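I wish you would study the pair of lines that follows with an eye to the fold:

===
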Amino acid sequence: MTDYAFPPPNQASIGIAGSTQRFPVHRIYCVGRNFAEHALEMGAEPSKGSPVFFMKPADAVIQHEAIPYPGCTEDLHHEVELVVALGPALPAQWNAGNALQTVFGYAVGLDLTRRDLQATAKEKRLPWDTAKGFDASAPISDIVPVQQAHIDADTLLSLHVNGSQRQQACLGDMIFSITEILLALSELYVLQPGDLVFMGTPSGVAALNKGDRFHATLQGVAELRGTII
Protein backbone atom coordinates (compact mmCIF):
# COMPACT_ATOMS: atom_id res chain seq x y z
CA MET A 1 0.00 0.00 0.00
CA THR A 2 1.29 3.44 -0.94
CA ASP A 3 2.00 5.64 2.07
CA TYR A 4 0.49 8.98 1.02
CA ALA A 5 1.19 12.10 3.09
CA PHE A 6 -2.59 12.63 3.19
CA PRO A 7 -5.57 10.80 1.65
CA PRO A 8 -5.77 11.39 -2.13
CA PRO A 9 -9.01 12.82 -3.52
CA ASN A 10 -11.68 10.47 -4.80
CA GLN A 11 -11.42 9.29 -8.40
CA ALA A 12 -13.64 11.39 -10.69
CA SER A 13 -16.18 9.11 -12.34
CA ILE A 14 -19.37 9.07 -14.41
CA GLY A 15 -22.35 6.75 -14.44
CA ILE A 16 -22.70 4.16 -17.18
CA ALA A 17 -26.21 3.70 -18.59
CA GLY A 18 -27.70 0.32 -17.69
CA SER A 19 -24.87 -0.60 -15.31
CA THR A 20 -23.93 -0.28 -11.65
CA GLN A 21 -20.33 0.25 -12.72
CA ARG A 22 -18.85 3.71 -13.13
CA PHE A 23 -16.53 5.15 -15.76
CA PRO A 24 -13.27 6.47 -14.21
CA VAL A 25 -12.24 9.78 -15.78
CA HIS A 26 -8.58 10.20 -16.69
CA ARG A 27 -8.43 13.43 -18.70
CA ILE A 28 -10.90 15.73 -20.45
CA TYR A 29 -9.85 16.90 -23.91
CA CYS A 30 -11.99 19.53 -25.66
CA VAL A 31 -12.12 20.46 -29.33
CA GLY A 32 -12.46 24.12 -30.22
CA ARG A 33 -14.19 25.51 -33.32
CA ASN A 34 -15.35 22.14 -34.66
CA PHE A 35 -18.60 23.50 -36.12
CA ALA A 36 -18.22 26.10 -38.89
CA GLU A 37 -21.09 28.36 -37.77
CA HIS A 38 -19.79 28.44 -34.19
CA ALA A 39 -16.31 29.34 -35.41
CA LEU A 40 -17.83 32.25 -37.34
CA GLU A 41 -19.87 33.47 -34.37
CA MET A 42 -16.66 33.49 -32.30
CA GLY A 43 -14.91 35.60 -34.93
CA ALA A 44 -12.76 32.86 -36.45
CA GLU A 45 -12.66 31.45 -39.96
CA PRO A 46 -13.64 27.76 -40.20
CA SER A 47 -10.62 25.69 -41.16
CA LYS A 48 -9.85 22.09 -42.03
CA GLY A 49 -6.23 22.61 -41.05
CA SER A 50 -5.29 21.36 -37.60
CA PRO A 51 -7.91 20.98 -34.85
CA VAL A 52 -7.71 23.23 -31.79
CA PHE A 53 -7.56 21.53 -28.37
CA PHE A 54 -7.79 22.62 -24.75
CA MET A 55 -8.30 20.68 -21.52
CA LYS A 56 -10.38 20.60 -18.38
CA PRO A 57 -9.41 18.83 -15.15
CA ALA A 58 -10.94 15.38 -14.69
CA ASP A 59 -12.91 16.47 -11.64
CA ALA A 60 -14.67 19.22 -13.61
CA VAL A 61 -17.30 16.58 -14.48
CA ILE A 62 -20.58 16.93 -12.60
CA GLN A 63 -23.76 14.88 -12.75
CA HIS A 64 -25.89 16.71 -10.21
CA GLU A 65 -29.01 18.44 -11.52
CA ALA A 66 -28.03 21.56 -9.55
CA ILE A 67 -25.10 23.22 -11.33
CA PRO A 68 -23.41 26.03 -9.38
CA TYR A 69 -22.92 29.39 -11.08
CA PRO A 70 -19.14 29.94 -10.90
CA GLY A 71 -17.43 32.87 -9.27
CA CYS A 72 -15.39 35.58 -11.01
CA THR A 73 -17.72 35.87 -14.01
CA GLU A 74 -20.77 37.80 -15.11
CA ASP A 75 -21.09 35.98 -18.44
CA LEU A 76 -21.40 32.21 -18.10
CA HIS A 77 -22.05 30.53 -21.48
CA HIS A 78 -23.36 27.11 -22.49
CA GLU A 79 -21.79 24.94 -25.21
CA VAL A 80 -23.58 21.64 -25.85
CA GLU A 81 -21.31 18.84 -27.10
CA LEU A 82 -21.06 15.21 -28.10
CA VAL A 83 -18.73 13.48 -25.64
CA VAL A 84 -16.62 10.49 -26.71
CA ALA A 85 -15.42 8.19 -23.91
CA LEU A 86 -12.36 5.99 -24.49
CA GLY A 87 -12.15 2.46 -23.12
CA PRO A 88 -9.31 0.01 -22.50
CA ALA A 89 -8.96 -1.22 -26.11
CA LEU A 90 -6.28 1.29 -27.10
CA PRO A 91 -3.88 0.37 -29.93
CA ALA A 92 -0.12 0.57 -29.86
CA GLN A 93 -0.25 2.35 -33.20
CA TRP A 94 -3.25 4.52 -34.00
CA ASN A 95 -4.69 4.60 -37.51
CA ALA A 96 -7.94 5.37 -39.30
CA GLY A 97 -8.89 1.70 -39.21
CA ASN A 98 -8.70 1.20 -35.45
CA ALA A 99 -9.48 4.62 -33.95
CA LEU A 100 -13.22 4.02 -33.47
CA GLN A 101 -12.54 0.65 -31.85
CA THR A 102 -11.18 2.56 -28.85
CA VAL A 103 -14.54 4.20 -28.11
CA PHE A 104 -16.24 2.88 -24.97
CA GLY A 105 -19.38 4.96 -25.36
CA TYR A 106 -21.00 8.32 -25.96
CA ALA A 107 -22.60 10.99 -23.81
CA VAL A 108 -23.91 14.53 -24.10
CA GLY A 109 -22.27 17.28 -22.09
CA LEU A 110 -21.90 21.01 -21.63
CA ASP A 111 -18.63 22.88 -21.92
CA LEU A 112 -19.44 25.74 -19.55
CA THR A 113 -17.37 28.83 -20.26
CA ARG A 114 -16.66 32.04 -18.36
CA ARG A 115 -16.88 34.05 -21.57
CA ASP A 116 -15.79 37.37 -20.09
CA LEU A 117 -12.59 35.82 -18.72
CA GLN A 118 -11.97 34.14 -22.06
CA ALA A 119 -12.45 37.39 -23.97
CA THR A 120 -10.02 39.24 -21.70
CA ALA A 121 -7.41 36.50 -22.03
CA LYS A 122 -7.75 36.42 -25.81
CA GLU A 123 -7.39 40.19 -26.01
CA LYS A 124 -4.15 40.02 -24.02
CA ARG A 125 -2.95 36.87 -25.84
CA LEU A 126 -2.89 34.95 -22.57
CA PRO A 127 -3.97 31.37 -21.84
CA TRP A 128 -7.66 31.02 -21.04
CA ASP A 129 -7.58 28.03 -18.67
CA THR A 130 -9.58 29.91 -16.04
CA ALA A 131 -12.36 30.45 -18.57
CA LYS A 132 -12.73 26.73 -19.30
CA GLY A 133 -11.22 24.58 -16.56
CA PHE A 134 -13.11 25.62 -13.45
CA ASP A 135 -15.01 23.47 -10.96
CA ALA A 136 -18.23 21.86 -12.29
CA SER A 137 -17.53 23.20 -15.79
CA ALA A 138 -18.32 19.87 -17.48
CA PRO A 139 -21.89 18.71 -16.74
CA ILE A 140 -22.33 15.34 -18.44
CA SER A 141 -24.94 12.62 -18.88
CA ASP A 142 -24.33 8.95 -18.16
CA ILE A 143 -22.15 7.28 -20.76
CA VAL A 144 -24.05 5.00 -23.13
CA PRO A 145 -21.90 2.06 -24.28
CA VAL A 146 -21.29 1.88 -28.03
CA GLN A 147 -23.27 -1.36 -28.28
CA GLN A 148 -26.39 0.60 -27.27
CA ALA A 149 -25.59 3.95 -28.89
CA HIS A 150 -26.20 4.46 -32.59
CA ILE A 151 -24.92 7.77 -33.92
CA ASP A 152 -24.34 8.92 -37.49
CA ALA A 153 -24.07 12.11 -39.53
CA ASP A 154 -27.80 12.80 -39.12
CA THR A 155 -27.86 12.48 -35.32
CA LEU A 156 -29.02 15.76 -33.79
CA LEU A 157 -27.20 17.50 -30.96
CA SER A 158 -29.38 20.09 -29.25
CA LEU A 159 -29.83 22.29 -26.20
CA HIS A 160 -32.96 23.94 -24.82
CA VAL A 161 -32.86 26.56 -22.06
CA ASN A 162 -36.09 27.32 -20.18
CA GLY A 163 -37.98 25.43 -22.88
CA SER A 164 -36.57 27.40 -25.82
CA GLN A 165 -34.10 25.95 -28.31
CA ARG A 166 -30.68 27.58 -28.16
CA GLN A 167 -28.45 25.20 -30.12
CA GLN A 168 -29.00 22.41 -32.66
CA ALA A 169 -26.93 20.76 -35.38
CA CYS A 170 -26.32 17.39 -37.00
CA LEU A 171 -23.11 15.58 -36.10
CA GLY A 172 -22.34 15.58 -39.80
CA ASP A 173 -21.77 19.33 -39.48
CA MET A 174 -18.59 18.76 -37.48
CA ILE A 175 -15.50 19.93 -39.34
CA PHE A 176 -13.38 17.10 -37.90
CA SER A 177 -14.82 13.60 -37.45
CA ILE A 178 -14.37 11.48 -34.34
CA THR A 179 -11.70 9.45 -36.11
CA GLU A 180 -9.80 12.57 -37.19
CA ILE A 181 -9.91 14.03 -33.69
CA LEU A 182 -8.71 10.83 -32.03
CA LEU A 183 -5.83 10.49 -34.47
CA ALA A 184 -4.81 14.12 -33.92
CA LEU A 185 -4.96 13.71 -30.14
CA SER A 186 -2.96 10.47 -30.29
CA GLU A 187 -0.10 12.39 -31.91
CA LEU A 188 -0.06 14.96 -29.13
CA TYR A 189 -0.76 12.81 -26.05
CA VAL A 190 -0.60 9.22 -24.84
CA LEU A 191 -4.32 8.58 -24.72
CA GLN A 192 -5.55 6.45 -21.83
CA PRO A 193 -8.66 4.49 -20.85
CA GLY A 194 -10.99 6.95 -19.11
CA ASP A 195 -10.21 9.87 -21.40
CA LEU A 196 -13.17 12.00 -22.46
CA VAL A 197 -13.27 14.06 -25.63
CA PHE A 198 -15.76 16.95 -25.85
CA MET A 199 -16.18 17.24 -29.62
CA GLY A 200 -17.07 20.91 -30.05
CA THR A 201 -20.28 22.91 -30.09
CA PRO A 202 -22.71 24.23 -32.73
CA SER A 203 -23.59 27.90 -33.09
CA GLY A 204 -26.03 29.53 -30.69
CA VAL A 205 -23.86 29.74 -27.58
CA ALA A 206 -25.31 32.24 -25.11
CA ALA A 207 -25.53 33.17 -21.47
CA LEU A 208 -26.85 31.03 -18.64
CA ASN A 209 -28.21 32.81 -15.58
CA LYS A 210 -29.05 31.64 -12.09
CA GLY A 211 -32.35 29.79 -12.17
CA ASP A 212 -32.09 28.79 -15.84
CA ARG A 213 -33.12 25.21 -16.65
CA PHE A 214 -31.34 23.38 -19.47
CA HIS A 215 -32.05 20.20 -21.40
CA ALA A 216 -29.31 18.80 -23.63
CA THR A 217 -29.90 15.85 -25.96
CA LEU A 218 -27.89 13.59 -28.21
CA GLN A 219 -30.79 12.31 -30.28
CA GLY A 220 -31.79 8.76 -29.43
CA VAL A 221 -28.77 8.24 -27.20
CA ALA A 222 -28.47 10.48 -24.14
CA GLU A 223 -29.96 13.50 -22.41
CA LEU A 224 -28.87 15.85 -19.66
CA ARG A 225 -31.02 18.12 -17.52
CA GLY A 226 -30.04 20.65 -14.90
CA THR A 227 -30.61 24.01 -13.26
CA ILE A 228 -28.08 26.77 -12.70
CA ILE A 229 -28.12 27.71 -9.00
